[in-house]
Amino acid sequence: MASYKLEELARLVGGEIIGDRDITIGGVAGIKEAREGEITFLANSKYDSYLATTRASAVIADRNGGSPKPIIKVSNPYLAFLKVMSLFSVDSSERRQRGIHATAIISTSAKIGADVSIGAYCYVGENAMLGSRTTVLPLVCICDEVKIGEDCFIYPHVTIREQCEIGNRVILHAGVVVGSDGFGYAKDGELNRKIPQIGIVRIEDDVEIGANAAIDRATTDATIIKRGVKIDNLVQIAHNVVVGEDSILAAQVGISGSTQLGRNVVLAGQAGLVGHIQIGDNAMVGAQGGVTKSVPANTKVSGYPAREHGLARKIYALIARLPDLFKEVGLLEKRVEELEKGTKVDSSAKDD
Hints:
By secondary structure, this protein is an alpha/beta fold. The protein has 5 helices and 39 strands. The protein has an 11-stranded mixed sheet with strand order 10-13-16-19-24-27-30-33-36-38-39, with helices on one face. A 10-stranded parallel sheet has the order 8-11-14-17-20-25-28-31-34-37, with no helix packed on it. A 7-stranded parallel sheet has the order 9-12-15-18-23-26-29, with no helix packed on it.
């Protein structure tokens, strides 16, 4: 494995070295697990105590930090550490076997770009298109007329339904389903009549979608995942949703039909959004937030129903006090009852 002088790593991240700049770094690790010859990072003050015990040979920390070890000081330690990690990581695309496996079933009308890899038991449908250097691992189903761009990486058991479009440098993790039917039914008496879902899913460039996420095709037109979106595992995105550029959706998020997310929106784990609302640019929804109406840009909401985060915290703090308040009310009721009894006694005495 490659190794680097600390000075080389500092140049990569634009940092300032305090200590021995000539030490050799051969790997990366967390501050608790690191061994001699590795570099670690400190981005959270609650881990400060580990600086005295870490076996790492060097540390990446913020510009106000100090360390008994050689240190690279940067403005954003976590981002700098990610850059250093990239030097030591092995891209899975480099480990794969190139070419098209003999068991893959590929339609004669499909168009396969240069240096594409297709693994064992894959299916590529009629008039499908795969861009150059795209990698498809075993047991992937690419249906008719699907378009996939260049430099994509598709893990096993992914299904991309008919006519859906995938941009460049898209990563689809195992079990992703792109273009499943939207959940649409109309009542006909007591019967539920299925509404045909004749739209598509369009995924733009540089999107990554986690394992077992499902993105439904539109009823008409397109469900759209815009450039740079990152989607975690087990996320459900319904028909005709639009997710804006560079948004982040954490695990188990659910978005109902026709909802639109702006740019750089963050939905924390298990957040749920009703349909036909809009979430503004740079908005954030806290974990398990239940969003029942539109959220303005640059707003942070949480709770159920989701409210402005500061207000939601106050409400939860008051809810935590309810048992004590209930006891206090009970004591006050008894006190009022005693006072009322005393008043009646005094009143009868005056009558006598």
